[in-house]
Design brief:
Blueprint (H helix, E strand, L loop, with lengths): L1 H48 L5 E4 L8 E9 L9 E9 L5 E12 L2 E4 L1 H6 L11 H10 L4 E6 L3 E2 L5 E9 L7 H17 L6 E11 L3
Parallel strand pairs: 1-3
Antiparallel strand pairs: 2-9, 3-8, 4-5, 4-7, 4-9, 6-8
């Protein structure tokens, strides 16, 4: 009798161990699967919120709602003989319609001199001030009134559907001798003084609005 009870007990323990083992295996698989799914989810979320400042993927998911973004261009050290500064942003059109791309300069800070264009005033619902320049006029000023040349280019205003792209480029060029000694000396001194008194601020900051819409045809 005792022998029979002992056998039953051993059989029961074996069954219990198997059940526990199965449960642990099942639990392990469950946790592994859910951990993997969580990692995939986290990775997906991180990828979706990761900001690629140099690219846009144009996809008109809200019908014909324009895509608008604001770019802050900053150049820390600006001086005669500096290496050419270039900042390029690329917009890829993955939508099924052709897109139109435009840009507008809104405001700028050039070594302490602040400017706001007519479009910048309108953007902030402010009254236009006498002497304010339009975006196009300000672009001309940046090319002609300083020994350094600041230029903006959009490679195309029409971006083809599905495979089209457009690049928006900002460049700042200041050769060691620009050809105008007076401007070189004046702005060279301004640059040195500004960097000395504002070591944590860019010498030049420019805010630009990029505006992309569906093309009419």
């Amino acid at each position: 009798m005792m022998e029979e009870n002992k056998k039953k007990k051993n059989t029961f323990l074996k069954i219990l161990k198997k059940i526990r083992l199965r449960h642990f295996i099942a639990l392990g698989l469950f946790l592994t699967a859910n951990t993997y799914a969580w990692l995939i989810y986290v990775n997906t979320v991180n990828n979706s919120v990761d900001v690629h400042v140099r690219t846009w993927k144009i996809d008109f998911t809200d019908g014909d709602t324009p895509i608008i973004d604001y770019i802050n261009i900053a150049a820390d050290n600006v001086y005669p003989g500096m290496s050419n500064f270039t900042n390029t942003i690329t917009a890829f059109n993955y939508s099924e319609v052709r897109a139109t791309a435009m840009f507008t300069i809104l405001e700028a800070n050039i070594m302490g001199d602040t400017f706001k264009t007519v479009e910048g005033r309108q953007e902030d619902n402010e009254n236009v001030v006498t002497g304010d320049l339009t975006s196009d006029q300000f672009k001309t000023k940046l090319l002609n009134d300083y020994p350094f040349k600041i230029s903006f280019t959009m490679s195309t205003s029409s971006i083809a559907a599905e495979t089209g792209l457009a690049t928006f480029t900002t460049s700042i060029v200041w050769p060691y001798e620009s050809g105008n000694d007076t401007l070189d000396t004046y702005w060279g001194s301004r640059s040195y003084d500004y960097m000395s008194s504002h070591p944590n601020d860019p010498c030049i900051q420019i805010k630009v609005k990029i505006y992309i819409t569906q093309a009419n045809s």
